[in-house]
Amino acid sequence: MLESLNLHFAFYDWLLVFMVTALGVFSAYTKDPQLKAVAATIPIPCGFAYIAVGLPMGAANAISGFMCFLYVHIVRILHYKVKIPIIPSIALGLAFFVALGTFLMPIVPDTEAMFLGVCAFDFIVGIIFFQKQKYKSGVRYKTPLPVYIKAPAIAGVVSGLMVIKHLMGGFCTSFPMMNSIVSYESRYSLGDQCRQLPLFLIAGPIMFIEMRYLETLLHLNHWIVLLCGYALFACIYWPLNQELKRRNERADASYSGEKK
Fold first, then answer.
1. Is 5 inside a domain boundary?
2. Domain range for residue 117?
3. Burial class (CB in 10 A: 0-12, 13-18, 19+), 134
4. Could you give the CA distance from residue 57 to residue 67 in angstroms, rounded to a whole number?
C-alpha cells in the first residue's frame, strides 16, 4: 500500500531529503539574495535524485531543467504582478510542473536525437536570457525563526514533495524541491532567483550529456558518473556566476549614479 502511494522512502530518498533540507536551511539563514539563488541552482538535489531514481540521464532531465526555469518565472509573476501570496504562488508553480511533467512523461521519446535536441534548446535559451535579462541585486533578508523550528519545517515540506518522486520518473531529477524552498526564502528577491536559472540552463545540459554517455557507453558506477558531472558543471557554472555578480554590481552602481 505504501509503495503504491509512493510513501516508502529508500535510503537514497532519505539522503535526498537531508541534502535538500540542508540547502534549504542555508538559504533561509544567508542574507545574500544571490547566494540563496545559488542554493537553488547547484545540482546537488538534482544529482541525488538521479541516484535515487536510478535512471540514465535522458530527455526528461533536460526538459525538466527548462520547466524549472518556467516555474521560477511563474512564481515571480504570480507573486509580484498578480499579487497572489507567496505560498499559493509556489503551490501553483509546482502544480504546473507536476501537470506538465506528468503529461510529457509518457509521450517524450527517450531517443538520442530528442535528448541532444532538448539539451541544445536549454543551452541556447540559457545563453539568450543570460545576455538579455536585466540585472539588479535583490533585498537582503534572512528568516527570523530559530533553526530548531525552521529546519524541521523545511524537512517536512521536502518530505511531502518527495511523495511524487516516482510519479515524475526522469522529470524528478530537476523537480523544483530546492527552488520551492528558495522561492519562499527569496520572496523579497525573486528576481535574483530568475536571473540565476539561465546559469543552470547553460551548464546543466553539458553535465547531462557527459553523465549520460559515461553511464551508457562506459557503464561507470552512478556515483562516479555523478562526481564527474559535478566537476564539469562547476567548471562552467563558477565563472558564469562570477560574471553574474559583476553584472549585478555594475547595474547597482549605475542605478546609484543615476539617483545622484
1. no
2. 11-259
3. exposed
4. 16
Tell me the one-letter amino acid at 90: I
pLDDT digits (tens, 9 = 90+) for 58-114: 888 888 889 889 999 999 999 999 999 999 999 999 888 888 877 887 788 878 999
Looking at the structure of the chain, the number of domains it has is: 1
Contact by Cβ (8 Å): 69, 197: yes
In the numeric block, which cell numbers belong to residue 15?
Answer: 539522503
Most distant CA pair in the chain, distance: 66
Contact, 97 vs 71, CB < 8 A?
A: yes
Burial state string for 175-199 with b = 16 or more CB within 10 A and e = fewer than 16: bbbbbbbbbbbbbebbbbbbbbbbb
Given a cut of 70, whether residue 48 has pLDDT beyond it is yes
Q: Residue 260 and residue 250: Cα distance in Å, rounded?
A: 15
Neighbours of 11 (CB within 10 A): 9
- Rounded-to-integer distance, Cα 39 and Cα 23, Å: 6
Q: Are 68 and 174 in contact (CB under 8 A)?
A: yes
Q: Label residue 260 by pLDDT band (50, 70, 90).
A: low
Beta carbons of 36 and 193 less than 8 angstroms apart: yes
Nearest residue to 40 via CA among 189, 149, 152, 205 = 189
43: in domain: yes
In a domain, 48, yes or no: yes
Q: Is 4 within a domain?
A: no
